[in-house]
Amino acid sequence: MIKNTLIYVERDGKYLMLHRVKKQGDVNKDKWIGVGGKLEEGETPEMCARREMLEETGLTARALAYRGIVNFYNTVCPHEEMHLFTCADFSGEVIECDEGVLEWVDKNDIEKLNIWEGDRIFLRLLNENRPFFILTLNYEGDRLISHELIYA
């Protein structure tokens, strides 16, 4: 199981989205996602989220909101446990990312992007400001075959 973080940086009704177009062999190739990455040895999810946000965007999180856990199962890749955060309190300037292109996208326009089907579920929960949740997503390749939502 891979443990990672996923952070949606917010500003002026927009999320900072990463269009994954630069890495070879990327399971997220051509998709738009939040920023984040794998937990390193000894890191908590919050420590990882802060580090990944800084490395990928150049932005320093002053406050993170821990919003949920997303269990991602796929027949073609390892199980992922994603710790989901939002961040509206940050400093710094956006830098170039070596994993893709960063772009501020209006929250209302994200549905138009090439995103994972399950991302639509948790992005809706984030936008509705739902309390902490646990979401399980089951995929066959790019196709979402089932999901289960649990509120903690």
Number of H/I helices:
2
- Report mean pLDDT, rounded to a whole number: 95
Helix vs. strand class: alpha+beta
Radius of gyration computed on alpha carbons: 14 Å
Strand content bin:
over 45%
Q: What is the makeup of the main sheet? A: 8 strands, mixed
Topology as a string of helices (H) and strands (E)? EEEHEEEHEE
Short summary:
With 152 residues, the protein is of the alpha+beta class. It has two helices and eight strands. Helix content is 16%, strand content 47%.
What does this 3D model show about the protein?
The protein starts with a strand and ends with a strand. The protein has helices spanning 45-57, 117-127, and strands at 2-11, 14-19, 32-33, 60-74, 77-91, 101-106, 133-140, 143-151. Strands 1, 2, 3, 4, 5, 6, 7 and 8 form an eight-stranded mixed sheet that branches. A hairpin with a 2-residue loop joins β1 and β2 (14-19). The chain is α+β, with helices and mostly antiparallel strands and 152 residues long.
Any chance you could write out the topology, listing elements then pairs?
Elements lengths: L1 E10 L2 E6 L12 E2 L11 H13 L2 E15 L2 E15 L9 E6 L10 H11 L5 E8 L2 E9 L1
Parallel strand pairs: 1-5, 4-7
Antiparallel strand pairs: 1-2, 2-3, 2-6, 4-5, 7-8
Which key terms come to mind for this protein?
2 helices; alpha+beta; 152 residues; single chain
